[in-house]
């Protein structure tokens, strides 16, 4: 059995702070600024996810053009994702976030500004969206790295910090589109985009004012690991993280298929009732939000490995409930439980990730995990539609439950290796000092 007292990385990192200094009041204030900045910018972005397609549909009436805009925005993560770790390593996490926020605010503001002057062609819009996508590539990983340095090296403190970050994003994902819908009705889609521009400005101001310049600093020349794929090589060399990443990518792939399946489940089983479809999707989102809070509250009570193990089981078991002819309320509860498992698993996983490796490679490892997961996501959307057209919703849900169960077993077996020293990673990556 896993013993929380023998976590293999406890002797690998300093006991005060990853950045080398104790965590005090100033660090807590700085960490709070990172939390608020992340939540504010995420809220603006989620509002734009409704406002931008609404604007395109009003202007062109074309669903194809709307889809193309979204594709252009996510494409940079697939093409340039691994470059994000290089950017963070050279600029530092704080500076990366500041530059991204400072640039994205004026760029998104170009959309309503040019539209008001009747100068917003579709080609111009695609360029704006592509630039936004490029600037967003290193942002999430930089946020995790910066929070790590401010929170300190304690596993449970890091799990709480990651839980708050997850909670900010999940709150924005849950409330952002709803708020945007109200504002679009009152002000129009173009005006809502000004709120997103303002959110980037506020995020930049918070980071500049409350986060010290030496936090999340760049790696000194000659110490940084070179190559965009350095993080991938480290992941592949680690006997624990290699199978964990296989399960993580599988879950990310399957959750996207589930996102498509839920509306079709309501349509097929409940006579096309759109309200039920909304309840199912909303239940999963509400669960993710509640899971962030629970993760924060239990971080001091459970080890990271045990929390991940329980969350993995919690993710998979409700998948089997979807196959049964149960009432809508049971389905909503099952989906809420499954949704809650995502932050319950993600928060300790990122805590393990950032403390398992030294600062010289940490950013590239985190960026590699995010990039690989984001590449798997769109594939899930594409595959889900094809599978459901070919086999139907019932067979698709069965495949989801079976594959997620296999991924869960693989992850649970991998977690048993946490009490082994990560010596394989050190031997397999020459020159990487894990001490």
UniProtKB/TrEMBL annotation:
Per the record, membrane topology reads: Multi-pass membrane protein
TM ranges are 34-57, 63-84, 120-142, 163-186, 244-267, 279-299, 320-340, 391-413
First-listed, main subcellular location of the protein, grouped into a coarse class: membrane
Q: Which Pfam families match?
A: MFS_3
Give the PROSITE patterns listed for this entry: MFS (PS50850)
- ATP-binding keyword on record: no
User: Domain of life of the organism in this record?
Assistant: Bacteria
UniProt domain Major facilitator superfamily (MFS) profile: residue ranges: 30-419
Spans annotated as Disordered: 1-21
PANTHER family registered for this protein in UniProt = INTEGRAL MEMBRANE EFFLUX PROTEIN-RELATED (PTHR23513), MAJOR FACILITATOR SUPERFAMILY ASSOCIATED DOMAIN-CONTAINING PROTEIN (PTHR23513:SF6)
Instruction: Report the protein name in the record.
Output: MFS transporter permease
Q: Which organism does this sequence originate in?
A: Kibdelosporangium persicum
């Amino acid at each position: 059995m896993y013993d929380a007292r023998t976590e293999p990385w406890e002797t690998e990192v300093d006991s005060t702070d990853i950045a080398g200094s104790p965590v005090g009041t100033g660090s807590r204030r700085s960490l709070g600024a990172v939390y608020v900045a992340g939540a504010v910018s995420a809220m603006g972005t989620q509002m734009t996810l409704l406002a931008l397609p609404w604007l395109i549909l009003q202007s062109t009436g074309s669903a194809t053009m709307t889809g193309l805009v979204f594709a252009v925005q996510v494409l940079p993560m697939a093409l340039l994702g691994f470059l994000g770790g290089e950017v963070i390593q050279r600029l530092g996490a704080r500076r990366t976030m500041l530059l991204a926020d400072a640039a994205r605010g004026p760029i998104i503001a170009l959309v309503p500004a040019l539209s008001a002057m009747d100068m917003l062609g579709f080609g111009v819009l695609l360029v704006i969206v592509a630039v936004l996508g490029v600037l967003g590539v290193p942002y999430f990983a930089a946020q995790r790295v910066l929070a790590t340095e401010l929170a300190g090296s304690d596993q449970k403190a890091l799990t709480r910090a990651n839980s708050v970050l997850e909670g900010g994003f999940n709150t924005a994902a849950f409330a952002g589109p709803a708020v945007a819908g109200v504002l679009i009705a009152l002000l129009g889609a173009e005006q809502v985009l000004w709120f997103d521009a303002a959110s980037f400005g506020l995020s930049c101001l918070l980071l500049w004012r409350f986060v010290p310049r030496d936090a999340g600093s760049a790696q000194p020349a000659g110490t940084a690991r070179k190559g965009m794929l350095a993080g991938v090589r480290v992941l592949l060399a680690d006997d624990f993280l290699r199978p964990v990443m296989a399960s993580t990518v599988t879950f990310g792939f399957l959750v996207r298929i589930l996102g498509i399946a839920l509306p079709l489940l309501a349509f097929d089983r409940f006579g096309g009732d759109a309200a039920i479809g909304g309840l199912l999707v909303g239940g999963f989102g509400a669960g993710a939000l509640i899971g962030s809070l629970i993760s924060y509250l239990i971080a001091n009570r459970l080890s990271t490995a045990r929390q991940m193990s329980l969350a993995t089981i919690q993710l998979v078991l409700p998948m089997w409930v979807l196959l049964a002819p149960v009432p809508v309320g049971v389905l909503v509860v099952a989906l809420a439980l499954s949704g809650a498992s995502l932050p319950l698993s993600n928060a300790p996983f990122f805590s393990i990730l950032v403390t398992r490796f030294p600062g010289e490679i940490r950013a590239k490892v985190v960026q590699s995990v995010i990039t690989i997961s984001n590449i798997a996501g769109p594939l899930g959307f594409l595959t889900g539609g094809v599978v459901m057209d070919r086999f139907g919703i019932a067979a698709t849900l069965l495949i989801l439950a079976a594959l997620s169960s296999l991924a869960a077993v693989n992850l649970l077996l991998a977690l048993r290796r946490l009490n082994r020293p990560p010596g394989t990673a050190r031997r397999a990556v020459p020159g990487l000092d894990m001490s």
